[in-house]
Amino acid sequence: MSTVTSRDGTTIGYSRVGEGPAVVLVDAACCFRGGGPMPAVAEALTGYTAYTYDRRGRGESTDRGPYAVEREVEDLAAVVEAAGGSAFVHGFSSGAVLALHAAAAGVPIRALTLLEPPLSFEAPSGPDPRDEITALVAAGRRGDAVIRFQVACGIPEEFTTGIRQSPGWPALEAMAHTTAYDLTITATVPDLGSITAPTLVLDSRGSDERLRGWADGVAERLPNARRRTLDGDWHGVAPNVLAGALAEHFS
């Protein structure tokens, strides 16, 4: 593991594997290098140097308040700088929306791939789940905060049944406070019209219409985007299948 220091002093842990042009992989909510799909994608991405990193407040990265999307953009920019000053970037779910924020902010991104960015262009309705999540974390009910986040995201019940007994549950509890960060990222629409980097917007054939509609909406608003559907499960694509699509787009 290596580390880089973000602008506000936060330490960001990252790893690299492979040889070739740099690709930075941006995790979704509740994921980090010790638990999530990106390490396997990095291993499958032959012909590139793949960088995975722990977003702030996760794994071996530190955290510093108050939270703002701009701080996470600075974290990603610091990893891109460590990767040589510019890089290809792939983001998954809320990590895909974070990658869009970074591109709109001028982080030197050569090209983008986005897997199912949950970016809605409709006005929000109902109570803000971030308030309840923050209150649950403050009360020490970190596990309940994770479940509240999953409900807010509409994750199917079959994916959450028994999750409290899973080996990864302690790590999820440790990251509970960062779920509010992801909801902040996805609640803010970046200036998509300003993003000129060639972008491939992906979805999985096994996902639902809501996820597919969000991907369509992002692709329609980007000036230099293509859409593609890959074989996969609900909100997920096998690492080798995804890596092949990334390599084709970045070549």
Automatic annotation (TrEMBL):
Domain AB hydrolase-1 as annotated: residue spans: 43-239
Signal peptide: none
The entry's keywords: Hydrolase
GO molecular function terms listed in the Swiss-Prot or TrEMBL record: hydrolase activity
Keyword Hydrolase recorded: yes
Superkingdom assignment: Bacteria
Stated name of the protein: Alpha/beta hydrolase family protein
Organism of provenance: Saccharothrix saharensis
